[in-house]
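Lab notebook: predicted structure, single chain.

Context: the supervisor wants predicted structures on file for every construct in the current expression panel, including those that have not yet been purified. This is the next one on the list. No modifications to the sequence; it matches the entry in the shared construct table.
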Amino acid sequence: MLAPDPRPLTGEPVSLDLLNTRWMSDGGRQDLLTGLEGLRIWLAGNGLDRRFPADAASLEHVLLAREALAAAVDDPGGAAGSERVNAVLDHGRIRATLTPEGPGEEAEFEHPSWGAAWTAARDYLELLRTAPDRIRGCAHEACILHFFDTSRNGTRRWCSMAACGNRAKASRHYAKTREA
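Prediction complete. Output recorded below exactly as produced.
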């Protein structure tokens, strides 16, 4: 049985959820992907555990994808991030198919160990096609989490209003009371 996912934010699209395998806590910077158990937790949390192996090669490829996505998100449109994401995408492709339900697509990978990494990189492309301006980093200065803003008006600022949003409000309130 898997340990519970310790991360403060889960459920984001798979590309951003991969970025969120690193987070800040009172104990400093945390990283879910320091070993195979963390990879198993991440794969299961994204419904990828039945499709892709949780082995050393997969962990290496997922870590490469995480670094590539971080570079792309930190510098949208930058050549370095694009090249790194493309290097991950080079290990898979979409094959057109015809199914009994009609036209379809099937992902194929150079090796199964590239599957989860490629899936995360491909998901990032879908987010860019859908609404690139909705890919956000949390506005709290001490937070390194990312989210896809699905709010109606597109003004979400925090990874979590209960955590980072309240911390920011409390900081502003404390600053005002000190000035008075």
